[in-house]
## 1
Amino acid sequence: MPKSDKGMEDKTERVNILRLTAESTSEIEDVVVRESPLTIVLNDQELVTLLCSPADQKNLAVGFLYSEGLINSRDEVKSVTLHEGTGVIRVETESGEELAREALFSRLITSGCGHGASFYSATDITGEKVESLLQVSVSEVLALTKEFQHRSETYRATGGVHSAALCDTKNILVFSEDIGRHNAMDKVFGECLLKDIPTDDRLVITSGRISSEILLKVARRNVPILISKSAPTSLGVKMAEELGITLVGFVRGKRVNVYTNNHRITSDGK
Amino acid sequence: MPKSDKGMEDKTERVNILRLTAESTSEIEDVVVRESPLTIVLNDQELVTLLCSPADQKNLAVGFLYSEGLINSRDEVKSVTLHEGTGVIRVETESGEELAREALFSRLITSGCGHGASFYSATDITGEKVESLLQVSVSEVLALTKEFQHRSETYRATGGVHSAALCDTKNILVFSEDIGRHNAMDKVFGECLLKDIPTDDRLVITSGRISSEILLKVARRNVPILISKSAPTSLGVKMAEELGITLVGFVRGKRVNVYTNNHRITSDGK
């Protein structure tokens, strides 16, 4: 059975396994990434249970509520209290009970692992396009992505987590990991919200595929450039186009694919 | 903008992109995996919108409803009707409106991308352990996994989908792909349900990481052996142990890791 590993901030556990080949059997100790349920209670009403990596839970809860449109600024958050033992996090907001009811109703309609179909029928999801004069060179994208990949210690140990980061054109400013790619992104934006870190005119990098849900999170924070070493989906490309976001995918080796709004990516020397 | 590619069953789209290196810029055509919203309407009530690959939608809808415990057998399904243009699939069940209301209530409590915390506190999630005398050799696991990887054409074209399959010890019996690893698994089990394909004493292979939600889907179909080339999470390992499921991970090259219930995996010649 898993034992906790304090050395990596409780993000991994050691397990005894059998390693088999056609010819040999050996009993070894392996490291797996931790997964824990986190139940968000918003103004005394149970809202949702996320399956996540048990670290940075406050950032996750606040980022999730922001992404889902249940809070709109830091000022609305009165308190965030994590109850470690039970996996419950309680968030109190200014608007109180009324918001929670509205939230539950909203979940009821959109619910599940997606959003309501109405969210996907038009460009007016977020109200407006992302406007930004930010530009970044191919070399800067490659350098940031390289640094980003070096940061993920848990992935190297377990092969089981996603990462996300907020950057300027030179440096990683906020970095998070989680077993879920949506959670990793929400942790980054939750930290930005709680620490008043601006996201306008900045870049976001994700280790995961770029689907429509990731685009919506990024658009909601007005981030003009989104980078991944993985592939985008068709709806991700369509939304990036419509939302004015520069989508850079398949950053591998020395080349990048720019899917949309390529005016923000410059060749070096230009 | 994406154009549909009929050649791959509408699972991919072609997009015009810029490919950049530090020295060069070229305009090329790339292929991305399609992502579409699918809204499941159960007995005239909108239940959930899944973001998925637009193929095998009937299998997905039925598999999803089964995994969520909203249907328990094929006999309960009166009709499944896909409305291609609108991305809506209507499922009618024997229990009718009463079930839909119950379903919505259930989503309201557990909701989100996870399940309620109560689901995770005990072993009695599914009522009982998976019992099966099935055994498979390391060589058979390696051969099945190799065949499984060869089957995923969409992944090779786009780098953007997950696959899942039901197998016996020699052959792949049911194979599905989707942008989501949960959806790929639900498509497999939906097809099994609709075609009366037994899942007892069989194996499931997934391309994705093995988290608790995947374990719950597999346990609900009484599948004794679960195989992935990726990593499991700690909760995935704990649930597999408790549910009597043999969990095989990190199938790479010529070796496999067996995390739980290793009596079902034999070295060759044993």
Note: The longest helix of chain B spans residues 97-110.
## 2
Amino acid sequence: MLVVQKYGGTSVGDLDRIANVANRVAQTKKSGNRVVVVVSAMSGETNKLISYAEHFSKTPSNVEMDLLLSSGERVTSALLSIALQEMGFKARAMTGRQAGILTDEIHTSARIEEINTCALKKLLDDDTIIVVAGFQGISKDGNVTTLGRGGSDLTAVAIAGALEADLCEIYTDVDGVYTTDPRIEPKARKLEKISYDEMLELASMGAKVLQNRSVELAKKLDVNLVTRSSFNDNEGTLITKEENIMEKPVVSGIALDKNQARVSIVNCEDKPGIAAEFFGVLAEKNINVDMIVQTNSHDGKTDLDFTIPKNELESTKAALDGYKNITEAIEYDTDISKVSIVGVGMKSHTGVASSAFKALAKENINIKMISTSEIKISMVIDEKYSELAVRTLHEVYNLDK
Amino acid sequence: MLVVQKYGGTSVGDLDRIANVANRVAQTKKSGNRVVVVVSAMSGETNKLISYAEHFSKTPSNVEMDLLLSSGERVTSALLSIALQEMGFKARAMTGRQAGILTDEIHTSARIEEINTCALKKLLDDDTIIVVAGFQGISKDGNVTTLGRGGSDLTAVAIAGALEADLCEIYTDVDGVYTTDPRIEPKARKLEKISYDEMLELASMGAKVLQNRSVELAKKLDVNLVTRSSFNDNEGTLITKEENIMEKPVVSGIALDKNQARVSIVNCEDKPGIAAEFFGVLAEKNINVDMIVQTNSHDGKTDLDFTIPKNELESTKAALDGYKNITEAIEYDTDISKVSIVGVGMKSHTGVASSAFKALAKENINIKMISTSEIKISMVIDEKYSELAVRTLHEVYNLDK
């Protein structure tokens, strides 16, 4: 097998942990696999470098930041390669550039455009373990670029895709993807397999094991992703194509998001283009609108409800200030949370939603907004009921079994 | 003017010192110059990275070491560029690769083969201050290389040569080149100008402001080097072509080297090739032989004296062990030191040597070996007289005036 492994900042947080990672990689290699490893900077390094830059400027240039921040991953890759060589393996550390990772020119959040796999393939054919500095690439004009948050995951997924690797393992400090946040529901169970789409919907769950950009890229490139812990030998969770999952559970997990606020536009004039106007002004301010619900119009008036991230409440208020005259009121509610039921099996099963509504009603939890997609039902409830709702739903769908 | 400035590890040792360097660079730019800055890693960084590598291996691979060690300079260059931008200047940080520094493939001690100045020239024409990460380049096969000890000085000199800069200023924590080590002779005087050759001969002096590789390269590329301190505004010492020095002093400085040991091969059979045999076996072991003196042969026997670095005494003994049978004795003396008088004016002045011999004799200092070149007279004396000899010679040639 060709395996790409990615080890995050805590997994390579100090020299002993890098030695531990070397042992894991060695084990994978000894089992007869070809191995490409992608590493992050040692935890704390990137923040240290950012604080250095902020000593000089509150708005340091992105080109310089990329040069600065890309150095941490280089250090880790060199050290891990040295450790593997000392164990008797052929190993080679590579920067993003050397690994052939070509990006666009959007510094600090570049997108990978192409991977030139020549150098990688040559080393793999030579039985060499490759250790790539994650998070970075090179633009067409030769500048060092970085890929933004979760960038090392993206490096691993992109390389796995380009090399058509059998597996891309993302090592963090959590065991995998759970049916819900185990801190809320101790009966939460680790999932063996989950589809890309379910993973994307669950991303807002407490345990943020993967960023959506990486899952989306894995889906696009058809990469089998495994998320697992570098601190134990537990099997992780495989994130793969829906077709690869034989027994599709109706519900795979319950996600909770406490970082949303609700905006209610009450009795707004219902004329064509009015929603476009509201959301247009929010989009201009880069405010990320999530759930949107519009009720039926009566007497030429309509109610429009939506959620936004709590930390964008003030900028939302400012953005909507000019629209007070065409509505009866604009109300804001921050004491809410969003509970979501996610599962590909929903597509072919009826009654999933009604079971949820019934169960929550039984606990006297009032549902304030509902929004559904093919594989997700999201409900806005009073924040104080968040944990109770998660546990209730976890039980309704027998997720601990 | 086009000025290349290089700031060493102590000059960029912490964030405040980097800010100080930014002010110096800004001053140079404001005076109407075009400026390229070359920076080292913050002091301590390189040693930290080496200790990390040694945690994993006593003999880490050179390719990996280069990737590891080149990261420190990148951090400094990004930070200095950010500081300059914040002050309102156009600035750009560049790695060795981006600055067009092409080297051979001898990792950890690569030689610069070529500098592609396109990118540098374009930025200079755009009135941009360029901040280059020193000590590093890229080999033809795309790997990161480093230039070995004093590598950032080499980067600066090579760039100054390639761009035909008017001046290459090497900033350290000392003021310049002195007539002798001020710790030995407090009357030592800072030299205003000195020729490349004199600088090369004085390199063994206490204040090691520049490595010979950099001076040799400056001589080859005809680069006007200035060595000065980044901690004050004192004028430094200009190291330049002999032709540029109007008044050539007979003697420029007195150098002292306490790290030599003397080897005496007593009554050796004097046949052709015998010296070649001794020095051949030492060269094989990479033992650096310095002064060599052979006396006239009598009765088919000769004496052969030479000096070696003290720390290579044991390997020298081992190397010469097999030659005991063709000599009466091989003697080793570690309690010696080498005092040298350096000056381009010697070429045209007579009596320089005899003044030295007379002055030392007056102090009862016995001279054990003498070796002369066009611009240098070196004498081996008992180590205990080292400081007295330096002060005596400093006075004989009126170097404090």
Note: The two ends of chain B are 32 Å apart (CA to CA).
## 3
Amino acid sequence: MHRDDIKALGFDVFGTVVDWRSSVAREGREFGARHGVTGVDWERFADDWRALYQPSMTRVREGERPWTVLDVLHRESLAALLERDGINGLSEAEADDFNRAWHRLDPWPDVVAGLTRLKQRYILATLSNGNIALMVNMARRASLPWDVILGAEVARAYKPQPEAYLGTARALGLAPAQCMMVAAHNGDLHAAAATGFRTAFVARPAEHGPGQTTDLEPTGDWDIVASDFLDLANQLGC
Amino acid sequence: MHRDDIKALGFDVFGTVVDWRSSVAREGREFGARHGVTGVDWERFADDWRALYQPSMTRVREGERPWTVLDVLHRESLAALLERDGINGLSEAEADDFNRAWHRLDPWPDVVAGLTRLKQRYILATLSNGNIALMVNMARRASLPWDVILGAEVARAYKPQPEAYLGTARALGLAPAQCMMVAAHNGDLHAAAATGFRTAFVARPAEHGPGQTTDLEPTGDWDIVASDFLDLANQLGC
């Protein structure tokens, strides 16, 4: 691979760009304080909410329900957790606002500086399962300098389905080999590589908090393995 | 209308944001010099290329052909014009490069400064019939600070079909009344208003060159009538 062959970088977002666990826990604490909810471990609540993420997409992937954006899936998962924890009496607007915690996630410290450098040379696209509104609101709050919001909603397919990657390349008018998937998750990179994408693994060993056991190391022959987005920019000559 | 009710601005691009006529003519002169093409009035060539724009979309709008992005429609129109003018012997790559003249259009002088101010308060979305790759390449070249590329390709509908506007609002998670269409074309604003969008008319009296006779004045009761994007920013309190 020569770096000049690459025209666009497609980024996984949850975990790779933003620290969803700490951010959702922070939002949970604020929500709890606002509504008098006590006795909840908000890090665990964030983990449990995220644990419902893959199952909620499976029914869409398998065609058991029509295309449904992630905001709706997150909202359904939240309803189940609120009921489990006996958190009652919220208005729809209050629950919807808590659901938009996923629009208010903080980036890892290297992200904005790294993306700013990478943008000089490459098209920067989101390639996330998050929906467009979520990605736009997150980017504005966190100053993420995307050129374009792509991924699941535009391709109408959830990763790791091939169409999520192929539809993203097609929208950019590029061949898959001109695109590089950037992710902290080996599974995402395996699926991207199978469609012809180039691959960059960026470890995020604190994504799941202390004691993380998954995705600490690359498990494939990725084109780039980087310690963070600044290292990625260095390796790509930006 | 109160300006705080508006969350996003959706921009028409060809004519409203960029000066397609002068830019395509400039690209034509460069193309002519490169390939030894003489005796062509490139302003007229730009006008003729643009004149094929609406007819080319009509067949898609009416379902006579499946969804087709504007790059492909532009390329077909270009082939017809090259044949008409007896410009032969180009490789596919050379013709494709000339076709991407539409990716290299220059903004009107007020645009970048105006958008930069408007972005402080509003989500900035393209709401154009141009395809995603065209919009991304144009934005990177011209430093257009979009938050998100929306419009025809994401909505899978060409303006003035209602779905082009409605699909854009839906992608942003907003009601049409929370979105304002910004355009130099009264017809675009009439169609947007019919779906519930707010409207801003920005006159571009040089879009069609000297002697322009259309869209010199607002023909509807638009929420805002502005002389350029700086005036639009003033009127929206940015």
Note: DSSP finds eleven helices and six strands in chain B.
